[in-house]
Amino acid sequence: MTIIELKNVNYQVGKRTILNNLSFGIKNGDFLTLIGPSGAGKSTILKLIANLISPSSGTIFYHGSDIQKLDPIKYRRQVMYCFQQPVLFGKTVKDNLSFPYQIRNKEVDLARLDSLLKIVDLPAEFLNKEINSLSGGEKQRVALIRSIVFLPKVLLLDEVTTGLDGKSKEIVHRLIESVHRQGTTIVQVTHDQSEIQVAKNVLEIKSRGLVNEKCNG
Ligand SMILES: Nc1ncnc2c1ncn2[C@@H]1O[C@H](COP(=O)(O)OP(=O)(O)OP(=O)(O)O)[C@@H](O)[C@H]1O
Q1: What residue stretches are annotated with the ABC transporter domain (predicted)?
Q2: Distance (Å, whole) CA 137 – CA 101
Q3: Does domain 2-215 have CATH number 3.40.50.2300?
Q4: Which atom of ligand 1 is nearest to the CA of 18?
Q5: If you take atom 7 of ligand 1, which residue's CA is the nearest one?
Q6: Would you report the helix, strand and coil content of the chain in percent, each value rounded to 5?
Q7: What would the mean pLDDT of 36-64 be, rounded to a whole number?
């Protein structure tokens, strides 16, 4: 079953065409890796799917419905976008990890947060850490946990391991794998050769979004 489908998507900024007539589908439960040269439009594709920007023409479907017609708040809870540079807010780690509960008017489940922190090798006391004191790798782990406290249907990962050291990278891979095993569809953009080598389903984005599908496994 297709969960996301792009149909004849164009994206223009002024007179410049960033994506030209792009069409492809993503199957429910897939782990898709988008690769391609810098500037080809990979991040733009993720932002379009996340509905952070809108196509100049063409349509993006989620379970067969045009995403422009869906409730944006509900859609963003189901289709999460994670930036290369993690965006944290407030003062502490707890401020960030409580947020998914607050927007749903739910009580914070500290046991759940504790177990998520454990998966990414961070102790429970980490909740009280000030975000300014975190390393880049720790910030990315906190940002990723925040996006999966309530498991999304689709997780869009925009070079989330770029700049992380080997250990942080491994921990983030473990987390992403566990989210995927629980049924979330993953779409990642990466330039990392080790990630590309193990990727089963690869879509190469050429200039202006022309695609070339590869399957490693
Ligand atoms: N809002 C914008 N205004 C002007 N140009 C833009 C805008 N958004 C994207 N672009 C341009 O569109 C092209 C594609 O950008 P995008 O970030 O999607 O590429 P990418 O394939 O993700 O590149 P990288 O691998 O370097 O991250 C780039 O040339 C970029 O400069």
Answers
A1: 4-217
A2: 24
A3: no
A4: 12
A5: 13
A6: 40, 30, 30
A7: 96
CB 78 within 8 Å of CB 154: yes
pLDDT grade for 212, boundaries at 50, 70 and 90: low
Report d(CA 141, CA 138) in Å as an integer: 5
Whether pLDDT at 207 is above 70: yes
Over residues 79-111, the pLDDT tens digits come to 999 998 899 999 999 999 999 999 999 999 999
pLDDT of residue 200: 87
CA of 91 to the centre of ligand 1 (A): 31
At residue 216, the pLDDT reads 58
Question: Which of 61, 80, 58 lies closest to 4 in space, CA to CA?
Answer: 61
40 lines ligand 1 (CB under 6 A): yes
Tokens 């989330």 found at? 160
Identify the residue whose C-alpha is closest to ligand 1 atom 28.
39
Complex confidence, ipTM: 0.95
Quote the ligand 1 centre to 133 CA distance (angstroms): 31
